[in-house]
Request: fold
Amino acid sequence: MKKRSNKKAYFIQRLIAFLIDVLLVYIVASMVVTPFIDVKENKKTTDEVNELMKQATSQEISTSEFADKNMDLSYSIARKNGIVSLITIILNILYFVVFQLYNSGQTIGKQLMKIRVKSDLGELTMNQMIFRAFIANSILLDIITFMFMLSNSRTVYFYGLTVFSTIQYMVTIMSVFMILMRKDGCSIHDLLVHTQVVRD
Reply:
């Protein structure tokens, strides 16, 4: 049996693995959600957005009017594509939680980069992978945004989206610095769930 390394993964390995995984999920999600997309309705909404931008550029409408109408259109798009958002969330959970757990802590990106997620407590558990992926892969943000979208309140949706997106952004920036600066390469989500990303 191959002895596993405890040497921390390099930042560039983690970054490339992440980009590969995001691209793979995007490609699969695009194929899966295609039947649920109303092309005509999306084109109509896109035309409305373009017209709104044109009015704002030519100063036919004020900045406040533009912001208000833009919020209406964005919220409308989010609600129309609700099923797409839900499918994307499910695919992310299946890939970053279930697949990675049963593939010995590796996604396809991590396999290509020869790195893996390792538990400090023994074997990786479902709870560790859930909490890790919810933070590292923004799944929690996607779920919260989806729930706010269902609230039927444009204001609640946008304020919620702004607040939680800002928090996710800050967590991501802090995690990048932690991976670069810490000797063990642990990020916030690694510390919270007692995992490390190591070279295979």
